[in-house]
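F.,

This is the one I mentioned.
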């Protein structure tokens, strides 16, 4: 027999087998028992929470010949044909690959035909948010007034992309993330059925990394079982499969950061890298560990086992909440920059060492070195040949308007083609953010991908320890030159920005009118003596003069002037 993936093999076949969604199971069961079947359902939630499984169970339940307390029997002719995908009354449509209007028109025309065997024709549309606008419009009329024998079940992970006209015509059911405890119990039940050994810590680690998705947990377990070696499911095997670092190392790393012990930090990083761990996975696990310590210290560790919650609570007492939030910000920023760094390990190590150096003002503002040295009497400054130490400014002393005023100078420090892209955009101060504005969405997308380079240039130009965070906005018909001109016109107060009076006559000078220079302001002398010139009398009566000599010497033989 061909191998079947574990998440397909363990797919729920009844509502009672769906894990972590009691509110949905109860509501659908009551509708089926009362015979109140709605014409349209919307199942939304994150991946691996049971949306498609619930849709398939509902499709069998409404067509089952012998339902039992709102559950499909899964043995009758209709249930078997639906389970084996032979039924013509149940159709599954992938909206990601059939998102055009023609596909929805075909579905609407097909829905008008009578059912074949079952009581209802059920259409399951997965990833419905991928439909185009015209496809949604084509579906709207059929969804509003469907035939009495048709049931639509729409499933999506992104309900905010669905038009409100579609949402208002469906019964919406939100699937929650499955708790780690429920995932662990489900995995234990399967392993006991298969007679496989396991350790609770390994299953907790799988549940922790599945992020509330049962499908992810089953896929990780399936991969872990395939590794074999006859030891069952062990924590070492799970960490080796994920390329993750032991949680004990995460606790030790956090303690070393809090103690500013750079040597211990580097030793833990080297050990993890020698074991073949992924540095980006290490950074991601650290950020999540800091979050767990912070949340446990503030709100308790209800999402963890008793042993893990006690350990997290103990570390939360040793490391303050301010430091933990600073660690999260620093490593999250480093994790983003590591995607473009030529050497990811170096970027990760630099971030950790900056936190461990008390003599340096760290960007996250969590290293506070008390001033324990006694005050010294004032001394006369001694001249030294060493250059002065440049202290970096903090964000509190930075005015974002200064960056906006020097944006063009900053752009000249950027590499091409980022320089030309940023030169086309303008900037504005928006609260604590520096907003980059442009009229071209593609240009803004390219700039957004290089925001670490822009922030580095800002920090270098203004000598900052922490550059400001950036925001991005696309405005149609945005004109950087016109905006700058309007701003300058509103802020300047010279003679070209408003009408002024001439000092001699008191008349108004228009903005584009150039004032006349006075004679005493001319930088050269004009001879004021009279130039004698005699005009013959016949010139006034007989037209143009013929005696050119009366005006001066002729320049050529034709007596032209």
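My design for it:
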């Amino acid at each position: 027999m061909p191998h079947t993936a574990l998440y397909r093999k363990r797919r729920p076949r009844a509502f009672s087998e769906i894990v972590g969604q009691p509110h949905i199971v109860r509501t659908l069961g009551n509708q089926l028992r009362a015979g109140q079947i709605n014409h349209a359902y919307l199942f939304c939630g994150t991946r691996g929470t049971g949306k498609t499984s619930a849709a398939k169970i509902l499709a069998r339940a409404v067509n089952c010949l012998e339902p039992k307390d709102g559950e499909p029997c899964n043995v009758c002719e209709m249930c078997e044909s639906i389970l084996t995908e032979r039924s013509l009354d149940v159709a599954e449509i992938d909206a990601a690959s059939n998102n055009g209007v023609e596909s929805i028109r075909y579905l609407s025309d097909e829905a008008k035909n009578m059912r074949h065997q079952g009581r209802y024709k059920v259409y399951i549309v997965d990833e419905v948010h991928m439909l185009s606008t015209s496809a949604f419009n084509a579906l709207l009329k059929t969804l509003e007034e469907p035939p009495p024998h048709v049931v639509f079940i729409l499933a999506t992970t992104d309900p905010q992309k669905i038009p409100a006209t579609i949402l208002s015509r469906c019964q919406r059911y939100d699937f929650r993330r499955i708790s780690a405890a429920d995932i662990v119990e489900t995995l234990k039940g399967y392993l006991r059925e298969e007679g496989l050994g396991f350790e609770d810590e390994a299953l907790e680690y799988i549940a922790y990394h599945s992020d509330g998705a049962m499908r992810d947990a089953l896929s990780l377990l399936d991969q872990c079982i395939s590794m074999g070696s006859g030891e069952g499911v062990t924590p070492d095997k799970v960490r080796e499969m994920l390329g993750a670092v032991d949680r004990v190392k995460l606790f030790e790393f956090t303690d070393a950061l809090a103690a500013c012990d750079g040597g211990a930090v580097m030793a833990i990083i080297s050990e993890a890298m020698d074991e073949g761990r992924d540095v980006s996975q290490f950074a991601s696990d650290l950020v999540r560990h800091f979050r767990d310590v912070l949340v446990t210290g503030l709100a308790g560790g209800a999402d963890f086992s008793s042993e893990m919650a006690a350990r997290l609570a103990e570390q939360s007492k040793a490391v303050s909440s301010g430091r933990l939030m600073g660690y999260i910000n620093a490593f999250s920023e480093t994790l983003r920059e590591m995607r473009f760094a030529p050497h990811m390990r170096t970027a990760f190590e630099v971030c950790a060492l900056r936190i461990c150096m008390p003599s340096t003002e760290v960007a996250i503002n969590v290293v506070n070195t008390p001033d324990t040295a006694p005050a010294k009497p004032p001394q006369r400054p001694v001249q030294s040949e060493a250059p002065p130490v440049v202290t970096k400014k903090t964000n509190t002393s930075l005015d974002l308007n200064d960056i906006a005023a020097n944006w063009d100078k900053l752009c000249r420090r950027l590499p091409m083609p980022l320089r030309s892209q940023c030169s086309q955009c303008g900037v504005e101060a928006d609260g604590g953010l520096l907003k980059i504005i442009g009229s071209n969405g593609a240009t803004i997308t390219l700039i957004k991908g290089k925001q670490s380079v822009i922030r580095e240039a800002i920090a270098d130009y203004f000598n900052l320890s922490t550059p400001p965070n950036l925001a991005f906005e696309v405005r149609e018909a945005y004109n950087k030159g016109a905006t700058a001109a309007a701003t300058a016109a509103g802020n300047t107060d010279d003679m070209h920005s408003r009408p002024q009076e001439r000092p001699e006559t008191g008349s108004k000078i228009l903005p584009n009118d150039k004032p006349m220079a006075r004679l005493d302001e001319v930088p050269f002398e004009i001879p004021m003596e009279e130039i004698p010139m005699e005009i013959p009398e016949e010139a006034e009566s007989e037209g143009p003069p013929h005696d050119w000599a009366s005006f001066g010497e002729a320049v050529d033989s034709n007596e032209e002037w």
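The two ends are 114 Å apart (CA to CA).

Talk soon.
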